[in-house]
Design goal:
The chain is mostly helical. Helices cover 73% and strands 0% of the residues. It has helices at 16-31, 43-63, 67-93, 101-146. The longest helix is centred in the last third of the chain and has 46 residues, at 101-146. The model has no long low-confidence stretch (mean pLDDT 84).
């Protein structure tokens, strides 16, 4: 991809997705003080890592200008939000924390936003590769004519 073809990306700090991922991560970190000490390296550690993974994956998706890379990053962000949601629910069921229904709604809303980005990534990736393949299809047609393969 030439430098002129690289799309201009908005600063990630302006993205509602990024702001929400950071807000959820900060919320999860605030919950860690409520965990029993024996769980500080188990469930609490998983919750901490899942929150960081989500922020990282969203920032990767927002910062990648390559369509196929962005498609992968948004897929990873989708896995991250589902992982964080699962660990959060597990921690609630184990009575380490009190589950907040508003947080579950925020998870679902963020997941829908990420799904929109995943779908956009599929479209962009397909269009990118279709454009990349045009030259090769043209060369192939010329080769077929030259080799009586028509």
């Amino acid at each position: 991809m030439s430098v002129s073809a690289v799309p201009k990306l908005e600063p990630m700090e302006k993205s509602e997705l990024w702001q929400e991922a950071c807000s959820l991560a900060e919320y999860m970190y605030g919950l860690l003080t409520d965990f029993p000490p024996e769980e500080s390296y188990n469930v609490a550690g998983k919750l901490r890592m899942a929150a960081i993974d989500l922020m990282y994956a969203v920032s990767q998706g927002l910062g990648n200008s390559n369509p196929s890379g962005r498609e992968y990053d948004w897929g990873y962000a989708r896995k991250s939000i589902n992982g964080l949601k699962t660990i959060y629910r597990f921690a609630g069921k184990q009575k380490f924390i009190a589950l907040d229904p508003d947080i579950m709604v925020r998870f679902d809303k963020l997941l829908k936003q990420i799904d929109t980005e995943v779908a956009k990534g599929y479209k962009e990736s397909a269009a990118y590769y279709d454009k990349e393949m045009q030259t090769w299809r043209l060369k192939y047609e010329i080769w077929k004519k030259d080799n009586n393969e028509v």
